[in-house]
Amino acid sequence: MLYEFSGAYGGRVTLTFERDRAKDPSYVLIFPFFRGQLLMAKHMKRGWEVPGGTMEPGEMPICTAIRETYEETGAELDAIEWIAQYTVREKGKKDLIKSVYIARVAHLQMLPSGFETTEVRLFKEWPAPEDIRSDQTYSPIMKDDVYLYVINHIRRIQHPFTHL
User: Fold this and answer.
1) Residue limits of the Nudix hydrolase domain (predicted)?
2) Is residue 14 a contact partner of residue 104, using CB atoms and an 8 Å limit?
């Protein structure tokens, strides 16, 4: 099944939870859980968001997810898996393809310095999409329906990473 909606920065987003529909991504987004709590980082310009970022040349998407989670939160992962992928299409621009991962955090270290995040927070109660949309402290990246569909999917499948 494909979900379609407007993107946070414009364009149209297509989201799938079916691995056989996945394409080669250039970006990743990670939903990391530590003892059942969702871990978010505060980006110095955008605000609160789940970790994510751009793949480096020659880097595998899962390696990007592990690296970005550490750089943005100080979290060391002990388990990670692909959960979804979305594509943002904007007229006159190259498609942005982002693989979404769910991860289990083994250890929280000090936030590494020199990166773009200033703080981390654990959310026992995951922020409600409607609260995120109305709260300016959250990143625009969190305000489209990717977050909504992914957390609903995680809840529906009762993913073990979300349990204590």
Assistant:
1) 23-148
2) no
